[in-house]
Amino acid sequence: MDFALNEQQEMMQTLARDFLSDEYNDKMLKTTVEDETGNMPELWQKLAEVNLTGLAIPEEYGGVGDFLDLIVVLEEMGRACFISPYFTGVVLGASVIIETGSEEQKQKYLPAIAEGKSIVTLALTEETGNYTPDAVSLKAELKGSNYVLNGRKLFVPDALSADYIICATRTKEGITLFIIDINIDGFSITPLKTVSGDKQCEVCLNDIEVGPDSLLGEAGTGWTYLEKVLQKANVARCAEMVGLSQQALNISLDYARERMAFGHPIGAFQSIQHRCADMLMDVDGSRFLTYQAAWRINECLSAAREAAIAKAWVSQASKRVMNSAHQIHGAIGFTQDHILHYYTKKARFNEFSFGDAAFHLEKIGTQ
Amino acid sequence: MDFLFSPEEEAFREEVADFLEKEGPKEWHKKKVSFFDMSGQENWIAVHRDMSQKLGARGWLSLHWPKEYGGQELSPFYRLILREELAKHHCPGYHSLSVDFVAPAILLKGSEELKKRHLPGIASGKVMWCEGLSEPGHGSDMAALETYAKEDGDSYVVNGQKIWTTYAHFADWMFLLARTDRQAQPNYRGLTFFLVDMKTPGITVNPIINMAGHHDFNEVFFDDVRIPKENIVDSVNRGWYVTMAVLDSERTSDLGYAIASTLLDDIVAGAREMGMLDSGDKVRMAELIAECEVARLTHYHVTYMQAQGKDTSYEAAMCKLLGFESIQHVAEFGLKVFRNYGLLSDTSPMAPLYGRISSCYLRSFGHSMEAGTSEIDRDIIAQRGLGLPRLR
């Protein structure tokens, strides 16, 4: 049993923390939340320069580090409430290609992602907004050796910033994945304005014809791969939530030490102290669960149970932490002038992303 | 980072599990007796003592002690594994008050003579201890305690009263925190840590029955009880520091999460058999599985810190609070699942799990009070863990 970060992980933690404190301030957070794409090309280039865009991509495709390194960095991104297509490109898009891609496809897409030259998104959910195989109905029909895709995807992350889109479709064999250049004719992309600043889109596919080289994995096997990717994505979302919660606790503590009432800092009152104690237990507990699941994924051990427990618990814990943070801050935390609301909104977004607590509790219950 | 036990630790777990399957009380296993519910069993003291001696004979009550005192100098994870298996096998015998409170106090602060005299009895499981801390007027504010030990030649003479003294009715020895200086400022600097033979004349033990109907607690009266000076651990007026040095060991001794997890498994298995688990119950079950997992990892983290020789403070409070409250939540779940059946007493033939549901539920009210209330734990977490100021 060992709870410590190793040297490499500590290095990644410092790198990410320093990078974000130098390059991403509260003003930029506000800008990225309000911006339609949330993608700052200059910032993205800097991320690539310090190799963060290649995290957890195998070295032979230009990447560095492993999944745990990525988790450490995502926790830091959570702390900074970092809004960018990073999660979409480096966690989602890259993972699908690593899991499903042929050697040729990996050579084509992964080095470009690692170098920060390309963003690949994943179009999975549709009208139901569910992350289950039965929720995928977008049709891909065989036409000669090509496929023709028609239908609508909802809540596609960062489609306006993406160069390629991985689309989960239904073919006669079952769920089938395609990777497609998003700039070809037949796509119509409409941004869905969210409160959290995450860039969600509606993507309509109108008679998009693709060759067999677009197929990721074999036809009908898509869900097997997606299950693995969703497991990683959920744990990655947990890591962000750990960071979000940790920072919400930190700023609440700062406030509780400074804010005076009845001649004392409010942090001296037991009602505030006990809230803070509960917040710390939620933050630490969330971190333990997240790292346990991430470590198991990194070691290629079964992690379905641990990932589901993590996502269920961390989602609920982050909600409790944010609620307490607001209560401690009083009215100021309820305004747009204060930073806290960004954290609350992002935490709620993460909670629903790839299945909420109820969804994962049901998984635990049936395991 | 590593979230698995070492192969040696896993081998130890298997050894323990095999042993407990053969040597554990069969009737208790059948009835799924929970650790904190053991005093509801007939003849339980004899069973507990017998099992304690069996564990002692294996060397399992002194796993992490120094070799010169009969220990094996193993990491605290071995103790944790032993206790996980004891919980899983519904086995008594681990007398935490001896093994994880008085033993570390003697090891850390006791004289060579006290070590030689008392450690073998604890390691063998033959001598059982109780703790004399709480007093009628002073629960959480322990430093204000009043039981007075007056110096008299080569001994001290004690007068006063302790309360909530768990297992005093059968313990062989007590470690007693008593006031030796009434003028000390602050008051905690006037306390001394004594080891007291329970057979000493002048000690009277009266039972207090808890709301589950079990006899764990007692009140203990001291009427001119004479304690030789060599029974002082550390030195006069240093008792507070001895107590503080081992409180974390006490807080991390009983594995709340392991007791809760076993109880949850038993409830679910029993409910499935009776067809009483509805879909709402399954969601709550999943939440409780997650809660036990958080408490488990929090406990592993503290144990990891202890293994690394790091000081723990708020982490131990966190671990106790999460673990013990998880038992409360699971016990409450048991009642909810079995509804009317759950409230049947253990004498009713229709009571599920041999009456464990009602009795664990009723016993669970104590979990947020014993070994430090949840409020004190939260104070510690906020003040020591987060550095929030203390209101004076």
Question: What is the gist of this entry?
Answer:
With 367 residues, chain A is an alpha+beta fold. In chain A, 52% of the residues lie in helices and 16% in strands. In chain A, helix 5 packs antiparallel against helix 6, helix 5 packs antiparallel against helix 7 (222-258) and helix 7 runs antiparallel to helix 8 (270-298).
Helical fraction of chain B = 40-55%
State the oligomer: heterodimer
Major beta-sheet overview of chain A: 4 strands, mixed
Shape call of chain B: globular
Q: What CATH architecture of the largest domain in chain A would you give?
A: Up-down Bundle
CATH fold title of the largest domain in chain A? Butyryl-CoA Dehydrogenase, subunit A, domain 3
Count of folded domains of chain A = 3
Query: What count of structural domains of chain B?
Result: 3
Please render the helix and strand layout as text.
The complex is a heterodimer of chains A (367) and B (392).
Chain A: H1 7-23, H2 26-34, H3 41-49, H4 67-79, H5 86-100, H6 103-114, E1 120-123, E2 139-143, E3 146-157, E4 164-171, E5 174-181, E6 187-192, E7 200-210, E8 215-216, H7 222-258, E9 260-261, E10 264-265, H8 270-298, H9 304-329, H10 340-352, H11 357-366
Helix pairs in contact in A: 1-4, 4-7, 5-6, 5-7, 7-8, 7-9, 7-10, 8-9, 9-10, 9-11
Chain B: H1 7-23, H2 26-31, H3 44-57, H4 76-88, H5 96-109, H6 112-124, E1 129-132, E2 148-152, E3 155-163, E4 173-179, E5 191-197, E6 203-209, E7 215-228, E8 232-233, H7 239-251, H8 256-273, H9 279-307, H10 314-342, H11 356-363, H12 374-385
Parallel strand pairs in B: 1-4
Antiparallel strand pairs in B: 2-3, 3-7, 4-5, 5-8, 6-7
Helix pairs in contact in B: 1-4, 4-8, 5-6, 5-7, 8-9, 8-10, 9-10, 10-11, 10-12
